């Protein structure tokens, strides 16, 4: 499977943005900051720019007989040609669809994934965010502010620490402040789960500051936050690794009831597992490591390993005795 390179993807978007017309001051500042972040950013951009100029020279050399040069320059596809040039040079697979993105700009960026997809966003400050399935977030990174708003889904944050400018994740009424960390945040409605793989974070309930004390969640710990309650618990290295298995496309379960396992698979697949809401079937205990997007293989296991009846109509997989 061909994987996209986020830096090449960003470079291609900057190239297309510049081709669309002169940059205003704010966008130009964002571009200059992106170029200055690393040598790889500059090298990647220059390589794609050279490919784009070669493509421009080919078009100038011989326009199609039915289209004048002026018409060619106005053609709608020209705006997106840098993406095509990037794909031709590097075989890049673009992650989010075009209508899910804003151009990079000084005030912030939007990132999102579809069902079953993952994506890694590289931020201006050197931090990176891995988005899990069906996730949407906004990042505002500049010289004074480092803030991410997680609207839905799950993400893993690898933060470049800065004492003067803390990295903050806001989701609903909850705020997570980085203390030099690698951590994940998952949002399910009003429920927020934080798992810390390295370092520490401070979890705060902004809506109830007088009722709920800020909670420091340290390495190999987790916290579940709901309105007016933050519960902290310790985790083993294995438990943290299993919780973050989605970063490698894997779901890991240890003695979990089938109804919970089915709900997890349904986060990653459009074809949904349907397990009776009541009755002993949903309490069948499941353990093991599974490919998150291969719900068909898991259904076959339920049939062959547990003797359950499986009916697949293409949209749903119904499980019964």
Which short descriptors sum up this protein?
321 residues, alpha+beta, three-stranded mixed sheet, 32% strand
Please report the total strand number as a whole number.
18
* Residue share in helix: 25-40%
Return the string of H and E elements. HHHHHEEEEEEEEEEEEEHEHEEHEE
Task: State the shape.
Answer: globular
Mean pLDDT: 81
**Which residues form runs of ≥5 with pLDDT under 50?**
64-106
Topology, element by element:
Layout: H1 6-19, H2 25-37, H3 39-61, H4 69-74, H5 81-90, E1 109-112, E2 119-122, E3 128-131, E4 136-141, E5 146-158, E6 168-171, E7 174-178, E8 182-188, E9 191-198, E10 200-205, E11 215-218, E12 221-226, E13 229-234, H6 237-243, E14 250-257, H7 258-268, E15 272-274, E16 285-291, H8 295-306, E17 309-312, E18 316-320
Helix pairs in contact: 1-3, 1-5, 2-3, 3-5
């Amino acid at each position: 499977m061909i994987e996209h390179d986020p830096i090449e993807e960003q470079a291609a978007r900057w190239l297309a943005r510049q081709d669309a017309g002169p940059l205003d001051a704010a966008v130009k500042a964002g571009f200059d900051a992106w170029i200055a972040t690393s040598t790889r950013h500059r090298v990647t951009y220059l390589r794609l720019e050279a490919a784009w100029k070669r493509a421009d020279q080919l078009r100038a050399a011989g326009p199609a007989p039915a289209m004048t040069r002026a018409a060619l320059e106005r053609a709608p596809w020209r705006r997106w040609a840098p993406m095509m040039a990037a794909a031709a040079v590097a075989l890049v697979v673009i992650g989010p669809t075009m209508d899910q993105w804003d151009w990079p700009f000084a005030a912030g960026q939007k990132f999102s994934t579809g069902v079953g997809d993952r994506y890694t966003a590289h931020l201006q400050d050197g931090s990176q965010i891995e988005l899990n399935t069906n996730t949407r977030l906004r990042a505002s990174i500049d010289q004074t502010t480092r803030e991410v708003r997680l609207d839905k889904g799950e993400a893993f944050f690898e933060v470049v620490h800065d004492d003067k400018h803390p990295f903050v994740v806001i989701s609903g009424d909850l705020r997570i402040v980085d203390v030099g960390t690698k951590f994940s945040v998952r949002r399910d409605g009003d429920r927020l789960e934080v798992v810390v793989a390295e370092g520490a974070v401070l979890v705060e309930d902004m809506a109830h500051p007088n009722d709920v004390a800020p909670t420091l969640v340290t390495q190999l710990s987790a916290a579940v936050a709901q309105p007016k309650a933050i519960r902290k618990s310790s985790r083993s290295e294995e438990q943290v690794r299993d919780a973050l298995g989605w970063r490698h496309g894997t779901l890991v379960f240890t003695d979990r009831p089938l109804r919970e396992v089915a709900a997890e698979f349904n986060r990653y697949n459009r074809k949904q597992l349907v397990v009776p809401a009541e009755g002993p079937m949903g309490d069948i205990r499941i353990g093991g490591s599974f490919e998150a997007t291969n719900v068909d293989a898991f259904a076959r296991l339920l049939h062959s390993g547990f003797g359950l009846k499986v009916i697949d109509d293409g949209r749903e997989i119904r499980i019964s005795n």
